[in-house]
Design brief:
Layout (H helix, E strand, L loop, with lengths): L4 E5 L9 H11 L4 E5 L2 H10 L6 E2 L2 E2 L5 H23 L4 E5 L6 E5 L2 H4 L2 E7 L2 H8 L3 E5 L1 E4 L7 E4 L1 H11 L4 E5 L15 E3 L3 H6 L5 H15 L4 E5 L1 H6 L3 E4 L7
Parallel strand pairs: 1-2, 1-11, 2-8, 5-8, 6-9, 7-10, 11-13, 12-14
Antiparallel strand pairs: 3-4, 6-7, 9-10, 13-14
Helix pairs in contact: 1-3, 2-3, 6-8
Length: 257
């Protein structure tokens, strides 16, 4: 394995006690060229309920009111990020916790503010800080909280983690983007793992209902990454991460690995 690898972790996957060691092995295999992007939606929902609010989703996107931004910063960029950084440190990784707000690294365009509130879609990635950290021997661990493309807007935007990871992988000219899931691969209608999917097949899997919910979102983000020049996107569980298994999304089947 060579070149930059971007790994996106869902909130549930972070509860796996064997995950830090798995990420450490990838860190070593890439020669330190690893960028980690994490979610934490379940933790955000828990804190919203503790506050007396019920989370609201539209089309899989969390409606994020202005009052939710402080909580999202606290949970994603605070406790989730630092817990992960601490576990990676114990596993031997020189991890540094960041958010997309740091250095205005992740700039996002608001997505229908009337319906979604403080939700954004990646518009521009300033990868200089990430490259500086990698060159210095550090592993960036990034929460997908971004800044608005409106430079007069001081508040953060909540960005979907899969979308953020795809945009970062493109900006870093990554060799590989890996989405860590709770299944070993994308599964077909018979629940059998699919080894390879060509870029132009992604929408078909979504339209046929083979990939739904979070998996559909991952295939959509994979398409963005492939279109942006990422060599391969993989989807799978912890074992697939370590052993380069799972489902590979590639530009075409002629370049399947």
């Amino acid at each position: 394995m060579s070149g930059v690898v971007v790994v996106k972790l869902g909130g549930r996957a972070q509860a796996d006690p064997a995950l830090p060691a798995a990420l450490a092995s990838v860190w070593q295999a890439t020669g330190g060229q690893l960028v980690i992007v994490h979610g934490g939606g379940d933790q955000v929902s828990t804190w919203q309920r503790l506050r007396g609010d019920e989370p609201v989703f539209v089309g899989g996107r969390r409606v994020t009111h202005a009052k939710d931004i402080e909580l999202i910063r606290m949970v994603l960029s605070g406790s989730v990020n630092k817990t992960l950084v601490g576990a990676l440190r114990v596993a031997g990784v020189n991890a540094v916790g960041l958010s997309g707000e740091d250095g205005a690294m992740l700039r996002a365009a608001p997505v229908d503010p009337a319906q979604f509130g403080r939700v954004g879609a990646p518009a521009d990635i300033d990868a200089r800080l990430l490259r500086t950290l990698l060159d210095g021997g550090w592993c960036p661990v990034l929460s997908p909280v971004g800044v608005s493309t409106d430079t007069s807007d001081p508040d953060a935007l909540n960005v979907n983690g899969d979308d953020a990871a795809a945009a970062i992988a493109v900006a870093m000219h990554a060799d590989e983007l890996f989405f860590l899931a709770d299944v070993p691969a994308v599964l077909d209608a018979d629940k059998a793992p699919i080894a390879t999917i060509a870029r132009d097949e992604c929408q078909s899997y979504i339209d046929r209902g083979i990939a739904v919910g979070g998996m559909a979102a991952k295939l959509e983000a994979a398409g963005v990454a492939i279109d942006g020049g990422v060599s391969v996107v993989r989807i799978g569980d912890r074992d697939a991460l370590v052993h380069r298994r799972g489902t590979a999304i590639v530009p075409s089947l002629s370049v399947a690995r």
